[in-house]
Amino acid sequence: MTSAETPPTSKAELNAELKTLLITAYQNGIDVEGGFECRNGAEHPDWDVIVTEVEKNEHSE
Predict the structure, then answer these.
(1) What is the top-level taxon of the source organism (predicted)?
(2) Which residue from 13, 25, 34, 44 could staple onto 40, CB 3.0 to 4.6 Å apart?
(3) pTM: predicted TM-score of the whole model, two decimal places
(4) b/e string for 38-51 if b means 16 or more Cβ within 10 A?
């Protein structure tokens, strides 16, 4: 996300941002599977994000 974009304000918007980020990274040859620590300083919580590939089913987009 760039500063010119509107930040997500709902879970659906957050999911859409994550989907775009993961697809773009994958298309650029980045192995997106695994764990990522997101340390955010004293003023915000820290998060641990785990990305795993899942098997597609017939209902996948």
Answers:
(1) Archaea
(2) 44
(3) 0.76
(4) eeeeeeeeeeeeee
Q: What is the pLDDT of residues 12-41, one digit of tens each?
A: 999 999 999 999 999 999 999 999 999 999
The CB density around residue 20, as the number of other CB atoms within 10 Å, is: 11
Quote the CA–CA distance of 51 and 22 in Å, as a whole number.
9
The tokens describing 15, both together, are 């999911």
Rounded to a whole number, what is the largest CA-CA distance in the chain? 44
Name which of 25, 27, 51, 57 is nearest 38 in CA terms: 51
